[in-house]
Design goal:
106 residues, mainly alpha
């Protein structure tokens, strides 16, 4: 191998090593930030659940479990619009929209 080839190989090795160092730094920095953001969001979420949704003597985990169960029941119930309860305001608005659409334009 010529002297120029050896120098090119050394440069290549240094560039690859520097690239890997930068890549490792960026990835580890991203992971640290991501971990911090996720843990902070979980803490905020737990505080909100504790303040807004827990009942007397209920833990945050119990409240989350209860709300998941209620949400699953509600989504199962709302799967069919025919069975869903309708309030008067929703029905009145729907009939008003139908009436406005059926009136001829002037």
């Amino acid at each position: 191998m010529s002297k120029l080839g050896k120098v090119e190989k050394r440069i290549e090795d240094h560039v690859v090593r520097a690239y890997k160092a930068v890549e490792t730094g960026v990835v580890s920095g991203y992971k640290a930030v991501e971990k911090g953001v996720v843990s902070t969001a979980e803490k905020v979420g737990d505080k909100c659940v504790d303040a807004l949704f827990t009942r007397d003597g209920e833990t945050v985990e119990d409240a989350k479990s209860r709300m998941k169960t209620q949400a699953a029941e509600a989504s199962a119930f709302s799967g069919s619009d025919d069975d869903a309860p309708k309030d008067e305001a929703t029905e009145e608005k729907a009939s008003e929209e139908t009436r406005v659409k059926s009136e001829p334009e002037a």
